[in-house]
Design brief:
It is found in: Cell envelope. This protein is α/β, with parallel strands linked by helices. The protein is built from eleven helices and twelve strands. Strands 2-1-3-4-5-11 form a six-stranded parallel β-sheet, with helices on both faces. Strands 7-6-8-9-10-12 form a six-stranded mixed β-sheet, with helices on both faces. The protein starts with a helix and ends in a 6-residue tail after the last helix. The structure holds alpha-L-arabinofuranose. Residues 51-52, 54-55, 128-129, 182, 210, 236, 238, 263-264, 284 line the site of alpha-L-arabinofuranose.
């Protein structure tokens, strides 16, 4: 991803209802005015949707941080559709908001609308997910995780877990929504690590749309078509949690009969990890709100900001989940 974005600085820092016709579910938490009128900064934010526990926590973080920073937030929910995000961004441009931020549903197809924002002199901040457009002048910065690294961490755990064993390891993979950066990158990062040892075989890989419902449905089909599954790698907790239901319904023990690796570390995922139903979770932090608001203020003031703001995150074993759960915020 970093390569595709041609980002010069990698890892430099560790860190409503105003949009019509786009399936808005949020609210204008500010005065409702358009940007540029007075001192209060207006931020137009287009969210992917509400597909997962991660997304809910991310929306909450953004809404709460905007309110506590005195930023007028115009929040739009794209309901998982790129066309809704494009409409929302155009609407933000028409309203002359001060800054636009969005979490792209997919990686491709943003050039035209971001050029419109650039021509209108409205700075854009990519939040959580990157785009694949090589023209980095279309946005000020990208704040979020390194999804390739997350996939690698999942692969590293697996390699260690099966160290010294030679039997084939049959893996099924639940991918995130097609074309989304975390789906592409978590898949490639994981594949890069496990390809070094031919005993690891991905015997089935399909999208579960980052949702519990689809994760469960796809795992049911995997269980029917694949008699010998050793490992499930799910690109997020929600799909893993749905898959656990399918595994239990099939009379198998998640975490024991089938080892499970997921990404996110939301409370429900961490609880399943502490209970031994998931074996390993790679953290992806949704709490981007406070840092995003700082970047918004700087972008509005015309101050220089790093091209890449990398989120700090870790991994969890069952023991670590037990320790972390009591103070887990999401
Ligand atoms: O972009 C972040 C990903 O999107 C999260 O890992 C997943 O849960 C969400 O839907």
């Amino acid at each position: 991803m970093l390569k595709r974005l041609s980002i010069a600085v990698a890892g430099g820092l560790l860190l409503a209802s105003a949009v019509a016709g786009c399936g808005d579910s949020g609210s204008d938490t500010g005065s409702g005015k358009s940007g540029g009128g007075d001192d209060k900064i207006t931020l137009g934010f287009s969210q992917v949707g509400a597909e997962s526990g991660w997304r809910t926590a991310n929306t909450k973080s953004i809404q709460e941080s905007a309110a506590s920073s005195g930023i007028d937030l115009k929040f739009s929910d794209a309901q998982g559709k790129q066309e809704n995000q494009i409409k929302a961004i155009r609407n933000f441009i028409t309203q002359r908001v001060d800054v636009i931020a969005f979490s792209p549903v997919v990686e491709s197809g943003w050039g035209t609308v971001l050029k419109e924002a650039k021509d209108a002199n409205i700075p854009v901040i990519l939040t959580d997910r990157a785009i694949d457009d090589p023209d980095t002048s279309l946005y000020k910065t990208f704040i979020g995780s390194d999804f390739v690294e997350e996939g690698k961490k999942a692969g590293d755990w697996l390699v260690k877990e099966y160290e010294g064993k030679s039997d084939p390891v049959n893996i099924v993979e639940l991918q995130g929504s097609p074309g989304a950066a975390p789906a592409n990158d978590r898949k490639s990062g994981f594949a890069d690590v496990i390809k070094a040892d031919t005993k690891f075989k991905v015997i089935a890989s399909q999208t579960g749309q980052f949702t519990r419902t689809d994760g469960k449905a796809v795992m049911e089909t995997f269980l029917k078509s694949q008699p010998d599954i050793d490992v499930l790698y799910a690109h997020n907790d929600d799909m893993g949690l749905g898959a656990i239901e399918a595994i239990e319904a099939a009379g198998k023990k998640p975490g024991t009969d089938i080892k499970i690796i997921t990404v996110d570390a939301v409370k429900d995922g961490m609880t399943a990890l502490a209970d031994g139903k998931i074996n390993f979770i790679v953290e992806c932090s949704p709490l981007l709100g406070p840092q995003l608001m700082e970047l918004v203020k700087k972008a509005k003031a015309g101050e220089s900001i790093p091209q890449r703001v990398l989120t700090k995150e870790t991994t969890f074993t069952p023991e670590q989940a037990k320790e972390a759960l009591p103070s887990r915020k999401y």
